[in-house]
Specification:
CATH topology: Lipocalin
Distance between the termini: 32 Å
Radius of gyration: 16 Å
Largest sheet: 8 strands, antiparallel, barrel
Oligomer: single chain
Strand order of the largest sheet: 1-3-4-5-6-7-8-9
Strand content: 35-45%
Order of helices and strands: EEHEEHEEEEE
Number of helices: 2
CATH architecture: Beta Barrel
C-alpha cells in the first residue's frame, strides 16, 4: 500500500533529520565521467525535487528530475511536489498536469544517512508504483542552501570523494531554488 495522498509537502517537521532536503534544487555545477558541463549546459539541466515522506518504510522520501516553465506561475511548490509524487506512485496522469510545460525525466525514492563522513544518500528509481532496476549509491554534503551530491551509476559502488571524474559517476553542486 502506498502512502496517503494527504501526507506530502515541502514543509515537514524539523524533528526529521531529512527535512532539510525538502524543496526544489537547481544545479550550478555538474560533472559526469570526467566532463565538466558548461554553465549554459548546466543551466538547462532538470531541477531535482525532493519531498520528505514520513511513511515510506526504509526510505526518507521521493525524488524527481523535472523541467517546468513557471513564467506564468502555474506551478506552486505544493502542486509541483504533488504531481511528481503522483507520477512516482501511480504513473503518469495527464489530467493532473496543470500546464503543458512540464516534463519528468526520472523519479523514485531516496534515503539519507546522516551519521557518516561523508554522509550517504541512495536513489531508487520507482515509477508508477514499481521499483526499476536502478539503485544509485551516493554521498552528500549540505551547507545551508547548498547541496553537494556525488552519485555512482546504477549498480556501481558508492563514491568516496566528491568528484565526477570516474566512469559512470556524477558530481553536482546544487542550490535551493524555485521557479
Amino acid at each position: 500500500m502506498y502512502p496517503s495522498p494527504s501526507i506530502f509537502g515541502w514543509k515537514m517537521s524539523t524533528e526529521s533529520p531529512t527535512a532539510v532536503f525538502a524543496g526544489c534544487w537547481k544545479y550550478t555545477t555538474f560533472e559526469m565521467a570526467g566532463r565538466l558541463r558548461s554553465p549554459c549546459e548546466t543551466d538547462g539541466l532538470a531541477k531535482m525535487i525532493l519531498v520528505v515522506e514520513p511513511c515510506l518504510p526504509g526510505w526518507d522520501g521521493v525524488w524527481s528530475l523535472v523541467l517546468f516553465d513557471n513564467r506564468f506561475g502555474q506551478w506552486s511548490e505544493i502542486t509541483l511536489s504533488d504531481h511528481c509524487r503522483d507520477v512516482i506512485f501511480h504513473g503518469a496522469r495527464a489530467t493532473n498536469i496543470p500546464t503543458a510545460h512540464f516534463y519528468m525525466y526520472a523519479g523514485g525514492r531516496f534515503r539519507a544517512g546522516t551519521n557518516g563522513t561523508p554522509a550517504t544518500i541512495d536513489f531508487q528509481q520507482h515509477w508508477g508504483g514499481e521499483d526499476l532496476p536502478s539503485l544509485q549509491l551516493g554521498i552528500y554534503r549540505l551547507e545551508g542552501e547548498h547541496l553537494y551530491l556525488c552519485v555512482g551509476g546504477s549498480g556501481n559502488s558508492r563514491p568516496t570523494t566528491f568528484s565526477g571524474g570516474q566512469h559512470d559517476q556524477s558530481y553536482g553542486q546544487l542550490i535551493r531554488s524555485y521557479g
